[in-house]
TrEMBL record:
Pfam families: GST_C_2, GST_N_2. Residues 1-82 form the GST N-terminal domain. The lineage of its organism: Bacteria, Pseudomonadati, Pseudomonadota, Betaproteobacteria, Burkholderiales. It comes from Achromobacter insolitus. This is Putative GST-like protein YibF.
Length: 204
């Protein structure tokens, strides 16, 4: 398998953590790319019409995207039932995945407003509207923090962990821990998991 990736992408990090947890990290060839919201990378577009990472290329040449699909594929390929449990636990895990992904979507849009849009056409109200969503997601994570597993994660807690890690990486000025002490306490433990430490984001 080959994965088109960027070392700063939280959605790529989700996939990398799943690969570590399912024992498949060593089976993946990591292909660097230059995903960008405006400038398409032809290396990605050749396999994914959205030209976004992560994109997983299977041995038969088929491509899988996005992170939600790839993570479930890796779990299924490994026969793992922890990341995507059955029954009622599955719907809780998937809803928490949506919560974490939603936080990340809003955070990325807020970041792109400053990094991808020229200064003369930036829209501060748009960026603030995205950060309102981020804070609302943080409030919900805080409300659920005492119920989140600190070990043996499912896809929901894993995605929330990636989201909080991304805020540390790209939005330290938000100081999200100050108003969310239970979420901060949970993340302090969860972030020490070997798969989390092995996938810390970094500039290329």
């Amino acid at each position: 398998m080959k994965l088109l990736y960027a070392p700063t992408s939280p959605f790529v990090r989700k996939v990398m953590i799943c690969a570590h947890l399912t024992g498949q990290a060593g089976r993946i060839e990591w292909l660097p790319s230059a995903a960008h919201p405006v400038n398409r990378d032809a290396r990605i577009a050749a396999h994914n019409p959205l030209a976004k990472v992560p994109t997983l290329i299977l041995p038969d040449g088929r491509a899988l995207y996005d992170s939600r699909v790839i993570c479930e594929y890796l779990a299924d390929a490994a026969g793992d039932t922890q990341l995507f449990p059955a029954g009622a636990a599955r719907w809780l895990a998937l809803t928490r995945q949506a919560l974490g992904d939603g936080l990340l979507d809003a955070a990325l849009l807020a970041r792109y407003e400053h990094t991808a849009r020229p200064a003369e056409i930036q829209w501060p109200q748009w960026r603030e509207a995205q950060l309102v969503k981020v804070r609302a997601c943080l409030d919900e994570i805080e409300a659920q923090a005492d119920e989140l597993p600190q070990a043996d994660p499912d896809i929901g807690s894993l995605t929330i962990g990636c989201a909080l890690g991304y805020l540390d990486f790209r939005f330290p000025e938000l100081d999200w821990r100050a108003a969310h002490p239970r979420a901060a306490a949970w993340f302090a433990v969860f972030n020490q998991m070997p798969a989390m430490q092995a996938t810390l984001p970094h500039e290329a």
